[in-house]
Amino acid sequence: MTRKHALIPVAVAAFAIASLLLGDAAVGRRIRANEEKPRRERDDGRPRRDRHPDLPSHAALRAALTEARNEENGGFGLDMWATIVDRDGVVVAVAFTGEDRGSQWPGSRVISAQKANTANAFSLPGLALSTANLFSAVQPGGSLFGLQHSNPVDTDVAYRGSSSRYGQRKDPMVGRKIGGVNVFGGGLALYDSTGTLVGAIGVSGDSSCADHNIAWRTRHLLELDYVPGGVSPRGDDTIIFDIEDGSSAGGFGHPHCIGGNEENEAAIAAGLPPVREVAGDE
């Protein structure tokens, strides 16, 4: 065998090894690319995941939001936006009540997502904090002053995609983390029938007091209000009207929203459905 012929097997082996290495590298790149992609949606509009299969679909969210919006909530009776996030802060569904995306304040789409992120980010398995509970705490001298400047909204997520998809089953925010902190009424943590914290809802589009009431009713209709505890006098995460002369007596108060309507706002909040109790905890 000539030297030339003897080198052929070596060359073939080297080529095979190089091909394997390049193939492994390509596979690695594909794996990383897939990990970076947002989670694909299922047919019901929820991201593909097994952690919280009971979070509402787009259709369920819109139906509950519309029913809640049509109740007596104070405010101006405007159409609304709502967003649900899972426990990781990933947007699961975005919906509105009006005829089209322009029937409610366009800016409230992202605000609703911001509220959902806040309620999820600052609630715990044993303690729910609504965005309404945070208003006084973040004011100068409050126990959480500066919180509103943390965790900024991801504007690439907020404004990506075609506006025609906003509020639809495939809203461009779905499957992505929106971030953001909001400190007035409309954001509530979601607890399932076992008392497990599974995410949060944010509602926006009216006065912040009405936003809170509509979010509360929507959560109740979705049966995700098994709240374990909160900072309100009744032990949940409802809005607290205890601000006098600019100071909250308990540190977690929210201002009234429409001048001259204070008694009605307080009465509506007091008449909201009570949170549910986990079976066996009564």
Task: State the main characteristics.
single chain, 282 residues, alpha+beta, 4-stranded antiparallel beta sheet, two-stranded antiparallel ribbon, 6 helices, 6 strands
Question: How would you describe this protein?
Answer:
- It is a single chain.
- This protein is α+β, with helices and mostly antiparallel strands.
- The strands form 2 sheets. Strands 2-1-4-3 form a 4-stranded antiparallel beta sheet. A two-stranded antiparallel ribbon has the order 5-6.
- Strand 1 and strand 2 form a beta hairpin.
- It is globular and about 45 Å long.
Strand content: 5-15%
Tally of DSSP helical segments: 6
Quick one: how many beta strands?
A: 6
User: How would you describe the shape?
Assistant: globular
Let me know the largest β-sheet. 4 strands, antiparallel
| Unreliable parts | 39-50
Supply Rg.
Answer: 24 Å
Distance between the termini: 90 Å
Residue share in helices?
A: 25-40%
Mean pLDDT: 88
Structural class: alpha+beta
N-to-C series of helices and strands? HHEEHHEEHEEH
Describe the strand arrangement of the main beta sheet, using strand numbers.
2-1-4-3
